[in-house]
UniProtKB/TrEMBL annotation:
Domain of life assignment: Eukaryota
Database matches in InterPro entries: F-box-assoc_dom_typ1, F-box-assoc_interact_dom, F-box-like_dom_sf, F-box_dom, SCF_F-box_component
PANTHER family attached to this UniProt entry: BNACNNG10540D PROTEIN, F-BOX PROTEIN CPR30-LIKE
Domain (F-box): residue spans on this chain: 9-49
Name of the protein this chain belongs to: S-locus linked F-box protein type-6
Gene name, Swiss-Prot/TrEMBL: SLF6
SMART domains: FBOX
Biological source species: Petunia hybrida
Length: 393
């Protein structure tokens, strides 16, 4: 019957209809007929479907949160949420218990990174899990083989995930600081810095020794990573005076930096997060959470870089005062700032109407991460065509 319908409809009409179907429906249609399977599996259709879903209603929220258990270890949960016309968030399927993460003593530095073509990475100090929330496929990546000499300790300072358009491959980046172990020294001296890149297509980790000499001194803000314009972006500082946006180009594997508004300084100033709003690089800077915030610090500024890599194009779009916030998470629909309260609740602030809303989602303080994503049929590359390293959750 399906083949009969296709014969009556032109291929353009079928594609037009399929473009407007969610991934969940398309996964069912794959098995209706050979014609549907071939169409939906084609790389052309997959790419066009990804970039065709642009309406706010096509956006979903992936929320990562942690809960502390009786043995003082952390349990990580992923929640998959969709919005309605009243800007409420509702689960689209059951929460997922992430059992692969190994950093059970501290959840502050767990990172949820993406999306990149619909794929995301969940990372801690040892483990990286790549997954597609739409198809519900995931793949734990091979751990890094590099270790420290005896008497030294490696601290993961920054991680990144993105796509190299030249090699046509996904990459994971890790930046580490090497310290000499000295239990009597509260602030051990940094001895070295390591840059590691994992090429997903060939399942291979490698160190970039030239970057250790090129960029020796900087500090990256935890959980500030964003992939944009072919590069990983982090909030960082090259000295103790001011923040910058540190960029790592995935194709050339070189670093560069972007200047941010002069008012964003470290000393007696705010802290920063990056976001994308209407595909524009956005900087959210907000007061560091303190028991009592002085009046002169009690504001949140949101800046837009209207022309990428042009400092003069920074425009302060919003200023918010009196909003108790632990950390911003993302901007949804272009006007809803999602953030974590100091008690660990998921909150929203409507930038258009100054409304505050509390959602029925909470976690251990400082453990919430959120990403806005669209439906995607993009497949996770396998290590080998003859093995099954991609799993279903």
């Amino acid at each position: 019957m399906a083949d009969g319908i296709i014969k009556k409809l032109s291929e353009d009409v079928v594609i037009f209809i399929f473009f407007r179907l969610p991934v969940k429906s398309l996964m069912r249609f794959k098995f209706v007929s050979k014609s549907f399977f071939t169409l939906i599996q084609s790389s052309t259709f997959i790419n066009l479907h990804l970039y065709n879903t642009t309406a706010p209603g096509d956006e979903y929220i992936l929320l990562k949160r942690c809960f502390i258990q009786e043995n003082n270890q952390y349990k990580t949960i992923l929640s998959f949420l969709a919005g309605d016309d009243d800007d409420y968030l509702n689960p689209i399927f059951q929460d997922l218990d992430v059992t692969h993460l190994t950093s059970t003593r501290n959840c502050d530095h767990d990172q949820l990174i993406g999306p990149c073509h619909g794929l995301m990475a969940l990372m801690d100090t040892q483990t990286t899990i790549l997954f597609n929330p739409s198809t519900r496929n995931y793949r734990p990546l091979r751990p890094s083989p590099f270790s420290c000499p005896q008497g030294f300790h490696r601290c993961i300072q920054a991680v990144g995930f993105g796509f190299d358009t030249v090699s046509n491959d996904y990459k994971v980046v890790r930046i580490s600081i090497i310290y000499k172990v000295d239990y009597d020294d509260e602030y051990p001296e940094e001895r070295d810095r390591k840059f590691e890149v994992y090429d997903l297509g060939i399942d291979y980790w490698r160190e970039l020794d030239n970057l250790s000499r090129e960029l020796t001194t900087f500090c990256v803000t935890h959980c500030s990573q964003m992939f944009y314009k072919g590069a990983c972006h982090w909030i960082a500082s090259l000295d103790i005076d001011a923040y910058i946006i540190l960029c790592f180009d995935m194709s050339s594997e070189t670093f560069r930096s972007l200047k941010i508004p002069e008012s964003c300084h470290i000393i007696n100033g705010p802290t920063c997060r990056l976001a994308l709003v209407h595909d524009t690089l956005t900087l959210i800077y907000y007061p560091y959470p303190e028991p009592e915030i002085p009046v002169e610090k009690d504001f949140i500024n949101i800046w837009f870089m209207n022309e990428y890599n042009v400092y003069e194009s920074w425009i302060r779009k919003y200023t918010i005062r009196g909003l108790l916030i632990d950390s911003p998470l993302t901007v949804w629909k272009g006007y809803l700032l999602l953030y974590q309260s100091r008690s660990g609740c998921l909150m929203s602030y409507n930038l258009n109407y100054n409304d505050v809303r509390e959602f029925n989602f909470h976690g251990y303080p400082k453990s919430l991460r959120a990403i806005v994503y669209k439906d995607s049929l993009i497949s996770i590359p396998r290590e080998s065509e003859h093995t099954k390293q991609v799993y279903k959750f």
